[in-house]
Design brief:
This protein is of the alpha+beta class. It has a domain of 281 residues: Thaumatin (Sandwich). 25% of the residues lie in helices and 19% in strands. The protein has twelve helices and 14 strands. The strands form four sheets. Strands 3-1-14-9-10 form a five-stranded mixed β-sheet. Strands 2-4-7-8-13 form a five-stranded antiparallel β-sheet. Strand 11 and strand 12 form a beta hairpin. The longest helix is centred in the N-terminal third of the chain and has 24 residues. The radius of gyration is 22 Å and the shape is globular. The C terminus is likely disordered. Pfam families: Thaumatin. It comes from Fusarium kuroshium. This is Thaumatin-like protein 1.
Length: 413
Amino acid sequence: MVSSSKCGDARSVSSLRRLLVPALIIGLSIPETRAISLEVPPRISEDDLLQKWGGYNVRNLRRKEPEDPDRPVPLVITNKCDSTIWPGIATQSGKGPGVGGFELAQGKSKELWVGSEWQGRIWGRTNCTVKDDSCTCKTGDCFGKLDCEFSGSTPATLAEFTLAGGLHKEQTFYDISLVDGYNLPMGIVYIPAKNTTFIPPNLTNCACIASPSWIYAHANTGTYYTNSSYPVPLENRVDNEDARRWCPWKYLAFPPTKPGDGVYPYPDDQIHRPEFSPCNSACAAYGTDKECCVGKYHDPDICKPSDYSKAAKAMCPDAYSFAFDDQSSTFIIPKGGGWEIIMCPKGRSTNILRQLGDEMNELADSGGLSQVAQKRLKNVTYIISDKSIANNVFPSIITMGSAVLATGLWLLL
């Protein structure tokens, strides 16, 4: 994704793994060509490959006719905050919306359009002073410009999209990211296309709410971002008081002044924090290779979640919290459809990838959902049942195996 910092760089490399690793595996697995050999290898049947690779649905992964990369995809940005915000948009590749930022009044929405292969990010800027083309903001500022040309400054909650991902660009990858810190609650609502109306909204519509006064009462499921037929699993432990204190003091972007100018001891947790209290990530706060998972630390076995990452994940289970948080943060669905990005939704953070991981894996693997899965997604008892993280295989790993298989078939057929 687009980045303006070490944390963004590490996150970008992490995102690219989903696209590059399958190709690398394929490249490394092709034997060296020998000019002296005229032997033609025997044709491998699809059934043999299916058995070898564990029954992945190869038919759904075969290459399709290329789509027009400029085919318009709706991108709606809605402001449910209690004041005006200034959304920022950064395009990494593909046809962007033609604008990098604008003013959006409370309760208003703006409909934009991007190309079907767009890759980029969206965030909300706050407390901005605007004069002509200049726009200086307290959070999310992009070099003082109203129309952003680059990504915004930290801290900022991000919505990130790769609309045409996977081996044949037939999947969409998206997430809510707190890798660059947190400034506003955010939700992503999927707008189905004709080919994706079968996907229930409790698999696609995610939210991160970590601001006091925006969190509703404890609940295991809800219909804030979906409908009564498909209740969405929710984070069910935190409350508004937790939201007021979750950010470790050292990461507060604008810490309140300690009484007495720090002359006498005063425990941090006893200082009242304002309703709007943005939080830097560990990477944004310190910028070290270790905290940003770059250099020799760009290894999931070496770079581990910080105290910030753990606190952020407790508030927003479906959000990225550091560079190697792919396993519980990436949504993968068939390509097609549009998106609404909601700034400041009220309700509770979603917990989709943990609670409905099997169904997400099935969707990422085959591009479809069985009738059994569709039925389970309506069953509240199943939705809230205890799920072991060990059973929730990282969706893109399954997709990776399928992608390698699909490429193997194209090389052989």
